[in-house]
Design a protein that fits this description.
The chain is of the alpha+beta class. The protein has 14 helices and 12 strands.
Length: 353
């Protein structure tokens, strides 16, 4: 009997110690219901909770993920063995993720396929600069553009955006010999268009033909300097795309008159060679008498040769020939290094010929 009583007293003392320890760990009441003693703490935002129901309520109301921020700053005074172990596991996960990325077949795939290179070469012959995105991009996957070698015709994947009706349409295998008027007739023509599409584009169908313009975004520009090409609706798609840059396929914006001001046109770039030659000619005319031919005596200058200056030429003012041949980019336009590489290749081919 005495031993049994002693055991009961010991068990009661241990339970009391555990409760006191648990009370010290909890430190506060539940931060969700506020009625019970907290048992859990959110790893992400350190919110206290008492039950699974309170945890779910906390995540639903606050949008908290419940995942601890492994890269959060920890001061030296709070850095313990648990923080060290957490950092070690984080580095292991990073190494595992990097190793998995090197085995990914999509990452190892080249950026441009052979088909894309052939399309770009065919477009270059028609004075169209065609660029391609990596194959993981949505625009690259939905592109269905093809080229018929025998007929020398592009069958474009075309995207039409009607901003006033908030509608977008994609059309496949559009021949570049068609005019924009023929392409749009199946959308906004009162007689030839589909009745369902005609109802969506009611504002365009009712508008006069001279109140409709077609724009295409000028690629290769900064985000704060967006410009658009105004296309001729009576010309073919090939003529409208000539001397322009495309990314994957053409995206046309069909805009009514009241929104034309939202599509600023892209101004033509002035060749640097013309400006520099004009400046040199005007400078030569103004200072013809002063810069004619000046010979300086070597006795006065202490030099060993006669310095001869020709009209309009100076080692400091005359730019190199290659720089003068390039065209000046418009403000906000981003130069593409691939264009320079293509120019170098063309020069090499011409020199070989």
């Amino acid at each position: 009997m005495m031993s049994t009583c002693g055991n009961e007293v010991k068990d009661g003392g241990m339970e009391k110690e555990m409760k006191e320890t648990k009370r010290k760990i909890s430190l506060s009441n539940c931060g969700i219901c506020g009625s019970e003693e907290s048992k859990y703490r959110c790893p992400a935002c350190l919110t206290h909770s008492c039950s699974l129901q309170c945890v779910k309520t906390h995540k639903k109301n606050s949008g908290c993920s419940g995942v601890r921020n492994k890269t959060a700053f920890v001061s030296i005074s709070q850095f313990d063995e648990i923080a060290l172990l957490s950092d070690y596991r984080f580095l292991e996960d990073t190494g595992r993720f990097a190793d998995g990325a090197t085995r990914d077949c999509l990452i190892q795939t080249p950026r441009m396929t052979m088909k894309a290179k052939k399309l770009a070469a065919s477009a270059r012959k028609m004075c169209i600069t065609l660029r391609f995105l990596p194959i993981t991009f949505t625009k690259s996957r939905e592109n269905s553009t093809s080229f018929l070698r025998k007929e020398q015709i592009f069958l474009w994947h075309l995207k039409l955006i009607f901003p006033q009706s908030k509608a977008e349409f994609s059309q496949k295998r559009v021949s570049d010999t068609q005019t924009l008027e023929q392409i749009l007739s199946s959308y906004i023509d009162p007689m030839k268009s589909d009745p369902v599409i005609r109802q969506k584009l009611k504002a365009y169908v009712q508008a006069p033909s001279d109140h409709v313009k077609v724009f295409m975004k000028a690629e290769g520009r900064k985000a704060n300097s967006v410009r658009y090409h105004e296309l001729d609706i009576h010309k073919s798609l090939r003529d409208n795309l000539s001397y322009k840059t495309l990314i994957e396929y053409p995206v046309l914006h069909i805009v009514l008159m009241d929104k034309w001001e939202d599509y600023p046109p892209k101004g033509p770039a002035e060749p640097v060679s013309e400006r520099s030659s004009f400046a040199l000619k005007s400078k030569g005319v103004e200072h013809k008498e002063e810069d004619n031919v000046a010979q300086v005596s070597p006795l006065l200058q202490g030099a060993s040769a006669i310095l001869t200056v020709t009209p309009g030429t100076s080692p400091d003012t005359e730019p190199p020939r290659e720089k003068r041949a390039k065209t000046e980019t418009e403000e906000g336009e981003i130069t593409d290094s691939s264009d320079e590489e293509e120019e170098v290749e063309d020069k090499r081919e011409n020199a070989a010929r």
